[in-house]
Amino acid sequence: MTRSDAPYSVAFDLGLVPERGKELVLTPSETERRAIAQWLEIEALDSLKASVTIQRLGENHYSYAAKFEADVVQACVVTLEPVRAHVSGDYRRELRVKPRVPSARRKKPTPEPQAIDVSLGDDDEGPELIDGPIIDLAAPLLEEVSLALDPYPRAPGVVFEPPVEPEIASDSPFAVLKQLKTAESGVSRPSKDRTHGKKQR
Fold it and tell me: What is the rounded (10 degree) CA torsion for 66, 67, 71, 74?
C-alpha cells in the first residue's frame, strides 16, 4: 500500500541502471525527518539511512533491494513519556516496466515518478508492473519503517494492562440470551425407550 501524501520522495530513472547495477544511499535531511515523523505519527525521527541497490534482471525487468536503520522516538502508550528505539530492516521488490506503445512524434510531458507497491514482497508471484521507468525510491522505505515501529511502545518498567470489559447488565437482551442458552444446555432430553403420550387405562 502506498500513500500519496508521503513527505519524502526520491525520483530515479531505471533506464540509467548500468549492467553492474546501481547503489544509492537515502538520507533525509533534518527538515524531511521532521515531516516523516509527523507522517508516521511519532514524536521524532532522529536518524534514517537506507542503502538501495537496483539491478537489471532483463529487458525492462529490475530488482530493488534495500536495508535501513533508524532511530525513533515514540510516546509511551501508558504514560506518554518519550520512548527511544533503534529499528532496522531489509526488503526486496521486483519491477517490470510496461513496454512503450509507438505513437505519433510529439513532445511528451515529463513522467511522474511511479510509487512502488510496497505490499509486494518475496512471497508475491511475479514482478510489479509499472507504467514508466521513473520510480520513487523512498515510498517502500517509508512503509517499511512504519511497519518496524512498535505498535505499543512502553517506557521502562511500565506494564500495559488492557481495559476491563464492562459487565453486561442482567436485564439486557444479551444477558437474557446467555441465560437461555445456559438453561437449555442443562435440560436432559428424554430417552427413546420411555413411553410418552400413551393413553392411561
Answer: 70
